[in-house]
Amino acid sequence: MRNSRKIYFNQLKAATLLALFTLSGHSVAASSELPTNGKVVVGTGSISQSGSVMTINQNTDLMAINWKTFNVGADSTVNFVQPNSYSVALNRVMGSDVSVIQGKINANGYVALVNPNGILFTPTAQVNVGGLIASTLNISNKNFIDGNYIINGSSSNAIINQGNITALDGGTVMLIAAKVKNEGTIVANKGNVSFAAGSKVTLDFGGPVKVQVNKSAVDALIENGGAVQANGGVVYFTASAANTITTTVINNTGIIEAKTLSTGEKGEIYLLGDKINDRIVVGGKLDVSAPKGGDKGTINIDAAFIEYITASSKSSSTATINIETDAQKDAQTDAQRGFFSRQLASSNTGIKIQSIEDAPTAAGGDEDSAEVQKTNEIVINYLGDGINLPD
After folding, report:
1. Residue 84 and residue 345: Cα distance in Å, rounded?
2. What span, in angstroms and rounded, lies between the C-alpha atoms of 186 and 174?
3. Could you tell me the CA-to-CA distances from 216 to 28, 71, 282 in Å, in that order?
4. What does the alpha-carbon distance between residue 202 and residue 213 come to, in Å, rounded to a whole number?
5. What are the pLDDT digits (tens) for 150-181?
6. Rounded Cα distance, 113 and 136, in Å
7. Among 8, 232, 258, 262, which residue carries the largest CB count within 10 Å?
């Protein structure tokens, strides 16, 4: 009885969290603790179950399975046994239930989970894979087979991670939906972590830009209050809102870490919105430091409005933050830009203001008055004037 109550409570909590993040009120499956009614529709493989453990043996590099539900209970495990680390197992949910991952998912290759109803990784979730793609947008079997990773759909539901997701070194973690929220921990060292918010997205595993939003979504939003780590790799957040008023599309209050490795691989962080109405709110900690020597990485921020900037830097060489915005260029005054410069300078984070075009000047002073001269400085490059400042 106690175990039943615990399961029911966890499912009720999951449903409440999903509803709060506007997942269109779809219900959470009340009984399934493992995926149900799986059918292989691309490639070959087998599905077996022993107690609370499900094993999916994949025989071909590409395999797609249609499921009625895809849930993993807190005491349950789903193991994918794949030909190699580049193999991809596409799992598509055909039913109407949100996917709730409370237990373990293990794979030596890539696992893709597609559910338009929404996906929740709870605090007890443990995902250890070669790579993970979780999306509320769909991909056709033809595009999957042909390697055209174009995914699209009209779902307004969310992906929420509260658990622990880890990819192998050099692997990828991608969360793609109209709304993406991370409150847990995601690690993909030497690889990349990408969040994308939109209604049509293209993935390119061989290109420098792994994910691109091709079509906006209403109220698109990426929120990170957890920890994202891709040391020696790339963290890439991109969102586009189909709204006619200014809308926050990326809000970071957590930790984003892409440190330089001892072997020299630098990290990069991208926070990208469109240049019409999208706003990016940057708080928390952005860390592209080089604690074991070498050059620091780069932080790139691009949107119509940027409301708050903070950064952390601890080693001796220079990191760069590129800020590019075009909106409200005429409305932004020298005094506002000067205030922003002084705010950064007074924050004692070792930040140096540097302009590529028109250097922001502190009101009543010169450019040097807005600079902090330290060896462990971060250089902020202004590529435009549309910096939106907090009150």
Report:
1. 50
2. 10
3. 27, 29, 21
4. 7
5. 999 999 999 999 999 999 999 999 999 999 99
6. 8
7. 258
